[in-house]
Fold this sequence. Notes:
The chain is α+β, with helices and mostly antiparallel strands. The chain has 16 helices and 14 strands. A hairpin with a 4-residue loop joins β12 and β13. α7 (187-209) runs antiparallel to α8 (214-237) and α10 (274-296) crosses α14 (344-374). The chain is extended.
Amino acid sequence: MTALVEVQGGQPQWERARQRIQELGWPCHELSAKERRTVRRAFGPAAGVSEFFWVRVPVTGSSWRADREAAWQVTELSRSAQAVLYGRLFRLDETDRVMEPEWQAHSTGRRNESAAAQGFRRYWRAVARWCATRTGLLDVRVRIHAGRDAALHLARHLRADGPRSDISVRPLDGRGRVGTVQHREDALNRALALFGVPLLAMALFLTTAQHTKPPVAAVCWLLALICAVPAWWTAFTLPAARTKLGCLASCVVATLAVAVYALGVPGFIDGVEPRTAWVVAVIAFYVTGLILLGRRWRWQVLAVTVLPLLATLLVAALPFTGRILQDGYADELSLTPEETAVSGVYQLAAAVKLLWPILAAVFLVAAAWGVLRYFHFIRPRSVSAGTMAALTLVLALLIAVEWTLASPQQAADKLTEAASRRTEAPPYFGISADWVCVRPTVSARALNERGGKLSPRTPYLSFGVAEDNVVLWNPSTGRPLRVPAGQVKVLNVASPGRSCPA
């Protein structure tokens, strides 16, 4: 950004501001006589009070709202220089260059022989030469970026062996066609981003609308329609295709593909699940935010990615962390730690499960900060923005902790539901329960049960043997049923819906 900066005060303030600008490395030069007359007529400053400079302010991030970022930097310059500075005019310097067509030089060979040939032989030689040219067999290892006439002239005359007339060029991209509009370097990237992101957002809302109540579904359909508008507008204004008809075809095909992906085709393709769509959207947001954060501050990306990962693995490897979820699961089912003992691998997985929501919350705030700073929504070193980020992080951490600590109760509820319905019980970080039939090997009077009365005809969920007891789950009491391992015989059950044989 080129900014017209006004420095008020006197000669000492002007020199201090100029010195500070030089320390920052910003290019600065005086106004011309004509520009000075124009500025003084516009602002009417008193003589000897204000001085004006052209200052080139470096702005990192999006060109959209870049003037606001430059104004913030001028304000910071005023504070550091201890002088009254005003950014009067901000002009965006377009640095996005126009991409020139790319050409490959190749030898034309002995065309006089092809012209002298007659009939089918002449046609065959022309086809063979065309194929050899297109496949690169006749290339002379010279590649040129210019217009066609300039490329042909350079290929024939700027040669180490002198000018040659048996050299031609072939296009390597579509920009060399006649009548093609030469767009800038990042125009296609902007077109793809402004066209693809709204369509993906539209797919997210369409997917959500299929599994929500009618009022919420209506809102989701409206949001999907709103997302489609900028996508279609972008396709017709940026180089998505050569012609308007091509733009329309691209829009229709892309929109239908997104609709099929989100809604599916009845009888042929199922639409994506809302949970999957939201997970993909969150991951895409994480990646985009961290990439944009890295384009501004590489050390902050290391601070918000590598350090939390290392901290997570370090805390997960601690002995007391690995048993938190298993112990919570055991407390929900009134089991002992010995009855829910698992290997260290499952303890590490449970610890990662315990800590990854906290890690995700940190990544969420970092990604949001990267997106907002890249598009200049947050002022640098803003106290209010930092406070809001800290409060958001604390709120996200509280939600993550509550969600994680509720995991043992949810797993216990699933097990009790599976026991009542006689379905397979899901494992929980190495703690698994299998359906078994328990047949007593002693008389009913000698059988020493704890936690209920054993029914030989009823299948039970078994947690295995611990402390010389077979640990079963008793659905009738909702508590564990413990039977001495030496008094029963445990048999596997093929189908838990059937009664055990007598």
